[in-house]
Amino acid sequence: MATSSPAAPSLTGTTLSIDAYLNNPKYYARAAADFQLTRPIGGVLLKGRLDVTGSGAALFEQIDSLFAEQPAEVVDQLGDYPLVTTGNGTPSVAQTIKNGLATEFSDELVARGRFDEFKRKTQKLTNSVDKLFDTTCITAVSSAVTATTPATATFDNASGNGFRDIQVAAAKIMEAGDALGVSYNPDVVACRPLIFAYVVEQLVKLGALDKAAALVANATGIAYSAGDGMTYVRANASFGSGTKVLVADSNMLGSIATEDLGGGYQRMGDDPLDTEVKTIREDKNDGWHIQARKVAVPFVTDPAAGIWITGAGA
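Structure tokens predicted for Major capsid protein (314 residues):
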């Protein structure tokens, strides 16, 4: 029968063994964060956070317009005010979903110090949970954001101008906001790896990014350009059907609702969106049962806060 994890063992010197990780939820959560290899961008595109612990659902409205259906009019003395209807946004409910995965780790592997196996199993768990949720986020954004603008040419083409195309896309978002009475400030650009490499190269040529920062960007998949105030993020190869680039106001586009179900899980970081992990001692099987989960749901409230640049890649 499964039992809860025992108290953390005492450590000698600075050596942290596999057994110590498995016995202490905080140690294991920190290790899982260090092992993480994926490049989730859902939390970057949807920066809003909402705690729905206790209900598991978020009620929200998509913004349609902040203006009435007709303009205001001059009212004469003792005259009647024009009567106008003011519609509401479309109400929707987002229900949290629990994504999870589990694996086992035998006492033999622990005793033999198979840290490589421990690391691999942990990576597969957390990366798989992150990947599934990130796909959910991207699907939500892709289905909600329908505005497009064509690229001058593919970003790798000599006649192309990716930086200009991005600025045009940002301007169109601002214009869309003006029409709705909302102040949009586009701040993020997301694209697949190959397009990301071309964009970073153009930023260096324009002087918006120095070479050292470009090396860091290509290694980490994220770059901040002081030239236009944009954060550039590298998604997976299938993002935007492979040829599209997303420009968005991440503070207005939407949010992610999270739910804390308890149960002795430990988050891998300070963000409520971080994956939760748990280790359970299985005495009957002489081993450990390791679980990873994420309980959350993404939702888009302002589709006009994003736009796709089409034809950016070959």
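The chain has two domains: 18-69+89-139+255-300, 146-253+303-310.
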